[in-house]
Structure formats: C-alpha cells, structure tokens
Design goal:
This protein is an alpha/beta fold. The protein has nine helices and twelve strands.
Length: 256
C-alpha cells in the first residue's frame, strides 16, 4: 500500500510538472479574511495535496514610480517586514531581469533583507500558510511602462516550470463607489478578453499596475487560460458606506 501510494504521488507530481496557473490577488488588506479565503480556494482548485514548484509574485513598484525596469532579488535570502518573513529567490535574475543592486526595494538587515514594498510582503503570511514549500520569485514591476514587459515575456515563454503566477494588484482608487464599480466592470471585461492590445489594455484597466496585469494576462493567454472572477469588493462595500476619495477596489481572479 505504501509503495502504491508513493507511486501515485510521484506520478501526480510528474503529470503536474509543467502546469502553469495564474491569479490576481490584492495587497489592500482591509478585509484580510477574503484574501485568506481566496488563497484557500486556489489551493483546492489548482492543487490537491501538492504545491507549485515556484510562485512568481509580481508587485507594483510603489515607491519608485519613475523606474522603467523590472527588478528582482540579487541573491536568494530571507526577506522580512516586521514579523512577516519569507525566503525569496533570485532565480529570475537569470532571465534578463535586473537585480536590485541599489537596495531601494530590498535593504540589508543583518544577515537578511527587509522590504517596505507591501505588494510583496503582504502576501508572505498567506504563502507561508498555503504554499510553505514553494520557491517564491519576486518581480517588482513598473506600473505603466509596458515596454518593460517584452524582453521578460520572450525569456519566460516556454519555461517547463510548475508555477503559480500572482499579480499583486489593487484596482480603482479615489472615486465614489458608482464610478469605481463602472471602472471595475471595464477592467474585468478587459481581463476576460483573449485579445490583447497594449494601448487599449492600459486605457481600459484602472489599477495601480496595468503592467503587472499585462504580464500575467499575456502569460495566461499563452497557456490558453481564461480569467474567471471570484470576488469583487471595495472599501465602500466592506465598510458599507461610500468612501469617495478614500475608496479602493479589489478584484480577485483566477484562470482556468
């Protein structure tokens, strides 16, 4: 029985060797329980008793908005923000992604690094909970310069990796709920489309990082995966009052 079970597990992992899955998950944690619920949903939908070999975590570059390049780790090490810690891999520096040599995103802290980039560290607790053995490869992305995507797409295309790609993105900001909902509906329609035009994509997507979404969407389309909406909410719907200029919306999507 033990040999049969072991053989079945090995066969399952081998069959899933090159599977690529995709999700959009916010880093705005006003209602963190929904984020937890969505990670649990992804675990059950995509993975049954196993984990992706690698997680590519794509975050906006919130604090250096003029940067036009994709950035990643220079070396694999633990990265922390307060009590949130996760080992991050530098493997993507081998794929024409510049590593953060100027230490703007990942700053030295004793024998590890710290980061204030909440697009990255907000996900540590959920990845630690649901995918503790997966290797995490971060990408810090320009928010609006789509030219940064092309070289990366060329180099990532055809990789035989078992990966989960996560775009850590929040959607419409600083609008009343009616306007926010209208913009979110356009964003959702665009993400469900299998036809991508760069200029139209940026025009129709209202989010803090259209480039992050374009990268994820293109990779998903290359794998013939279609976007499905799981949840949509906002500061206004969570707090049950229109927050106007303090409103931020969240869209949770997965691809199948």
């Amino acid at each position: 029985i033990w040999l049969l079970t072991t053989w079945m597990v090995i066969r399952l992992k081998w069959n899933k060797k090159s599977e690529q899955n995709f999700a959009i998950i916010p880093h705005f944690m006003l209602d963190s329980e929904k984020v937890d619920k969505f990670y649990d949903y992804l675990k059950n939908e995509y993975y049954n008793g196993w984990e992706p070999e690698k997680i590519i975590l794509i975050s906006p570059n919130h604090f250096h908005t003029q940067t036009k390049e994709m950035l990643t780790m220079c070396k694999s090490t633990d990265v922390s923000y307060n009590s949130n810690t996760r080992k991050l891999s530098s493997e993507l520096s081998n794929f024409w992604i510049k590593c953060d040599k100027n230490e703007k995103i990942f700053e030295p802290r004793w024998d590890s690094l710290k980061t204030n980039e909440h697009g990255i560290w907000e996900h540590f607790q959920w990845i630690n909970k649901y995918f503790p053995d997966s290797e995490v490869l971060p990408i810090i992305s320009p928010c609006f310069q789509l030219s940064a995507v092309e070289n990366l797409l060329t180099n990532l295309k055809g990789l035989n990796w078992n990966i989960l790609v996560i775009a850590s993105v929040d959607f419409a900001h600083y609008q009343n709920e009616q306007q926010t909902l209208q913009h979110d509906q356009k964003s959702i329609e665009t993400l469900k489309s299998m036809t991508l035009n760069q200029s139209e994509f940026v025009d129709w997507i209202d989010a803090d990082c259209p480039v992050c979404l374009y990268l994820l969407q293109t990779l998903a389309n290359q794998n013939w995966k279609n976007a499905e909406l799981r949840y949509r909410d906002s500061s206004s719907t969570i707090l049950n009052q229109d927050m106007w200029e303090e409103n931020t919306s969240r869209i949770f999507m997965w691809y199948k």
